[in-house]
Write a structure and sequence with these properties.
2 strands, 6 helices, mainly alpha, two-stranded antiparallel sheet, 7% strand
Length: 185
């Protein structure tokens, strides 16, 4: 075949077809990157790590499988009637787990959509367990956004948005110190 009959100059047709396909794939990935970066606390490094680890999201049946693949699922010890859950399995990508835990720290802010979920867990189980639980939830959320091709909506997380007022009634409080001299104890 002479160069004058080849499409796109001197490239054979099969190479140009692969180039066009890879260009379309990169355009689709850019849309996915923008979509995932809309989640608060998730930046470009977290998104690229998640895309690299998940690769093709169609290979996972459910979001639970993705969390298990990332190593964010609790281990289970079963024997007869006894059913105990332990630490996370830590299987899969350590980088993705670390990135999701870093992104989960943003749930501490009151403006984050997962803040109510984080506060409830933090009060009940502790800060570190709450961070891992929010990372687990973020992993599942990123999977759903990739699988369905939808944009991030905080209302789908089961939280209400708006300025809420809360009156706190406490049984005890610190006694305010008098101004000036310290009171004798």
């Amino acid at each position: 075949m002479c160069a004058c009959t080849m499409p796109y100059g001197d490239k054979p047709a099969s190479r140009s077809g692969r180039w066009i396909t890879s260009w379309q794939t990169s355009q689709a990935r850019r849309v996915d990157i923008r979509r995932l970066q809309a989640v608060p606390g998730v930046g470009p490094i977290v998104v690229l790590t998640a895309l690299a680890v998940f690769a093709d999201v169609q290979r996972f049946a459910t979001a639970k499988h993705v969390a298990s693949y990332a190593g964010l699922a609790p281990s289970t010890y079963q024997s007869g009637d006894c059913d105990r859950h332990g630490h996370i399995t830590e299987r899969g990508s350590a980088e993705l787990r670390a990135m999701l835990c870093e992104a989960a720290h943003h749930a501490r802010r009151s403006t984050h959509p997962l803040h109510p979920y984080f506060l409830k867990l933090c009060a009940r189980r502790g800060y570190k367990i709450a961070i891992v639980a929010v990372a687990h939830r973020l992993c599942r959320l990123l999977y759903v956004l990739l699988r369905d091709g939808t944009d991030f909506q905080p209302t789908r997380l089961g939280v209400d948005e708006g300025p809420f007022t809360q009156t706190i009634t406490r049984r005890f409080r610190l006694t305010p110190k008098p101004a000036g001299r310290l009171a004798a104890i």
